[in-house]
Write a structure and sequence with these properties.
Length: 206
């Protein structure tokens, strides 16, 4: 790591960690949605909305701190990118839950549980990685594994699309379910964006 003569604003580390912990909460709500009947989904969606609002608050706090800090722990554009990508993850997860409720989906297609399991694992890894931004240590395995998970998510997504278009579903149902699985895929992509930003930061700081 580069030697610095100037102090750094360290509150960013705690805020990134809090944002990532909130994403774990969101991923658990996604898992809960899988086993819930239709009558329980609205309440889960309400809790997910609360988590998404908490994520927005965390992102705004990071941006506010960034705008009021003269010295930052790493490049400003990387802080913006990392905070924005973390926020995107929560937005996509909340959107997926909301769509399930709004469309009154009775049964999610087989394979969605695999998508959500990948997201839950990526959430755990991201939450574990954020505190390591302080030292920039033990991060390589994190971004390698998240990229592997994103590749796995791509494969699951393609299989789900093939399943949806196999003629079993009515056209309107295909449109609804496709939108849900597409949003979950976007969440996996956002996890990869976070990991790529962390890798960029680590390379610059080495």
């Amino acid at each position: 790591m580069r030697f610095r003569l100037t102090p750094r604003e360290t509150s960013f580390y705690d805020m990134f960690a809090a944002s990532a912990d909130n994403i774990v909460t969101g991923s658990k709500l996604l898992m809960e949605l899988l086993g819930a009947d239709a009558s329980a989904r609205a309440e889960i969606a309400e809790r997910m909305r609360a988590a998404e609002h908490a994520g927005d608050d965390a992102t705004h706090a990071i941006f506010h701190q960034l705008n009021s800090s003269f010295i930052t722990p790493f490049d400003r554009e990387d802080i913006y990118s990392l905070a924005g990508s973390l926020d995107d993850i929560m937005d996509f997860m909340e959107e997926a839950v909301d769509l399930v409720v709004l469309y009154n989906i009775e049964e999610l297609p087989k394979g969605v549980e695999q998508q959500i399991e990948v997201l839950a694992r990526a959430a755990e890894l991201t939450a574990e990685a954020m505190p390591n931004l302080r030292t920039m240590e033990n991060l390589t395995e994190y971004w390698i594994e998240v990229n592997r998970l994103e590749n796995q998510a791509d494969q699951i997504h393609r299989k789900l699309l093939a399943h949806l278009f196999n003629g079993k579903y009515e056209a309107i149902e295909v449109l609804k379910l496709k939108q849900i699985v597409d949003v979950l895929e976007e969440a996996a992509d956002a996890f990869e964006h976070v990991a790529n930003t962390v890798e960029t930061i680590a390379v610059k700081e080495s």
